[in-house]
Amino acid sequence: MNNAPVIDETARASLIAAARAARETAYAPYSHFTVGAALLFADGSVVTGCNVENASYGLSLCAETVACASAAHAGRRGGLVAVAVAGGPEGVDGEPITPCGRCRQVLHEQGALGGTDPLVLSAGGDGIVIEERLSFLLPRAFGPAYLG
Ligand code: THU
User: Fold this and answer.
1) Which domain holds residue 88?
2) Which residues lie with the beta carbon below 6 Å from any ligand 1 atom?
3) 146 inside domain
4) How far apart, in whole angstroms, are the C-alpha atoms of residue 108 and residue 9?
5) The pLDDT of residue 94
6) Distance CA 48, CA 37 (A)
7) What is the tens place of the pLDDT at every residue in 16-69?
């Protein structure tokens, strides 16, 4: 799988800002842990999502999954260059968080469809940003290629 293009500092900063803005719309009355995610596509467009919890706790959706579903609904199939995630306890800009296992798999689908290995930017409140390729977070991923 090809690596996604490297994105510059301005694009990184604006993607992180989009994730932080999306976090503001999180519906997290049960965990009080709010998360925003922003997906950057090769054409420069950005699709965001927030976590959406449910009174039946196990049905809650993570921010990254909501963003991926929104992108798919908008017709996106591949072209995922980078993902920014910002989250933590409500009202707190805490430690950088990385996507959960399920979200790594969901993100992989959108990357794999276009042959990209997206950069994952996990933004903390103290300005610390952890950067990893999705293939590092989810090595030997199962994907659409296996299904022919
Ligand atoms: N959550 C996300 O939205 N993304 C992550 O990467 C980790 C966890 C959400 C799920 C749940 O609503 C809350 O954070 C606490 O787990």
Assistant:
1) 9-141
2) 28, 31, 33, 35, 51, 53, 60, 62-64, 85, 87, 97, 99-100, 103
3) no
4) 24
5) 83
6) 6
7) 999 999 999 999 999 999 999 999 999 999 999 999 999 999 999 999 999 999
